[in-house]
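FW: tagging you since you asked about this chain on Friday. Here's the raw sequence from the shared folder, copied in full. Didn't touch anything.
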Amino acid sequence: MNEGGFFGEYGGRYVAEVLRGPLENLENEFRLAQTDEAFFSELENLRRNFIGRPTPLLPALNASSSIGGADIYIKLEGLANTGAHKINNAIGQALLAKRMGKTRVIAESGAGQHGVACAAACARLKIDCVVYMGEEDIRRQRPNVYWMKLYGAEVKSVSSGTRTLKDSVNAALRDWASSWENTHYLLGSALGPSPFPDMVRSFQSVIGRETKAQLGDVTPDALVACVGGGSNAIGFFEPYLEGVRPILLGAEAGGRGAGIGNNASRISGDGRISIVHGYKSRFLVDLDGQVLPTHSISAGLDYPGIGPQLAYLAESGRIRFVSVRDDEALEALKFFAIEEGLIFAMESAHAGAAAITLARSLGPGKTVVVNMSGRGDKDIFISAAALDGPAWKTFLREQSITEEDS
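HL: got it, structure written out here
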């Protein structure tokens, strides 16, 4: 990263004057915390005893045998407390907020997993928590909304725009601009104005560092991760960014296919350089810079932009990107459930699909590591409707009748 929070031409801090002070203060506090042994001692304790780290690295023997290609390993972030990698960043930033004397945390959430992680982290550290979430995402991710509220968080529905993640970010930024003196904005992905991309990568790098240590003498030929904003990917790839090996592959949401509103492929699709949400990167925008509609079966991959460091690494050629369609992700979901007894989150299933294709192309004797960034419990209303439609609809209808009778 260069001065000013840039990665090449990407990144920066394009915000209103009212947010410059809070961001500068946050950057200073983050830098100080990085040199504070007590802070990292408490963080390591929380990682071990609250998150449940290290998460396992599973040799996927059945899947590898079925494919007949490279050996696949799966980093099981889905076994972390709250069910996904999001807790790594949430607990780190929540602990930083407490160190700064903040009494309130706000967050945005798309798939809901970041909201759940923030709610859990704030419950543990006894900080008030408010989560902004689009109406459409609330509809798609009702179980996660329930969990957030159970942890004591307030969930605020966002009805503007597309009623999804980008609108939740806007709402959270507006809140922070007027409340920053007692509030920390706990941004969930490696994007936004500096220093957020650095902070999130730092807290998520525990994934990649654990993976590297767990591999021991095994040298991976490729690492694969899904990419929405990019927090699980940049954390997973972090120890391997220098040099040209291994292959680093990011799986974007190919949605229904090509065309405006059918996908969320910023690098492997039609992304343009623009400035949105306070940073410069590649976004799905029109010629006037207006954000275009997106689609993905996974609520966590439909964000119209990508983290600035990932955009820079794509441009340099260090990270390759592919689009994975909804139907391909669903097939991967079924494949790993049947072969390995694992239910990937829909986001992670995109990485699983890309890993299957890559393992076949690399062939025997090679090693592919895929990050299962989360587990699929949260997606039951999506995956069941897609894979078991008639039976699922009958169940929901009967359940509704039962509730009315009671």
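FW: The chain has two domains: 14-48+86-196, 52-83+205-386.
HL: agreed, and DSSP finds 16 helices and 14 strands in the chain.
FW: great, closing this out.
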